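Review form for a predicted model. The reviewer records the input and the model, then writes brief findings.
Reviewer: anonymous (R2)
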Amino acid sequence: MEKKRAIIIGATSGIGFELAKILSFDGYIIGITGRRLSLLEDLKKELKSQVFIKKMDVSHAESRGDLKDLIEEMEGVDLVIISAGTGSLDPSLPWDKEKETIEINVLGFTAMANVAYHYFNKKSSGHLVGISSIASIRGGEAPAYNASKAFVANYLQGLRYLLSKNKKKITITDIQPGFIDTAMAQGEGLFWVASPEKAATQIYNAIKKNRKHSYITKCWRLIGWVLKIMPDFIYNKL
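Model under review:
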């Protein structure tokens, strides 16, 4: 049986790093991307299957071409996971950080998702996974981050809506993590913080089940439901 092929965009740390290891262990041919080539080389040494490396900064326009090149080098792909993302928890809202968040989480994400969508649509099969966030449900202390993750969730839903009108075997999965023990988890009073390993395991289970949406970890389903119905006068006091 032909081996499946997966690309993880943003594989140098956190969830993307752990997903690369899980997919490789399960026999996938892996394409890994990131801004730091040395970290990609280090990860490659840990993987058991064939690995392709592509240095890529999704905030730059040429990243679309980089992803197309990687797909061609791998002779096709079945699964694309967009794990690259950033955010800043600074109440002074420095413009450079707000701009970086939008460039990576919105423009970069859209560039990658658009390439994957067109490739899978032409192929008539495939699986695109995007990492949004529980923060996508409401605005919060990091306005650009929350808004950018809401964009990710809605963009994925839009792709799913377009694909619902045909019978192609293409799956779009929105992963909504809560707090994960990475550099992205900032601030005091964090709870239900999951390790990247646990988060990646649950994400892979959702991928195997072709889920359209999954909270990571599962306990965040309750928080998601509460956030959706909570009135502003209560939410603003949190």
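Findings: The beta strands are 5-9, 29-34, 51-55, 79-82, 125-131, 169-177, 213-216.
Further findings: The chain has a mean pLDDT of 90.
Recommendation: see findings above.
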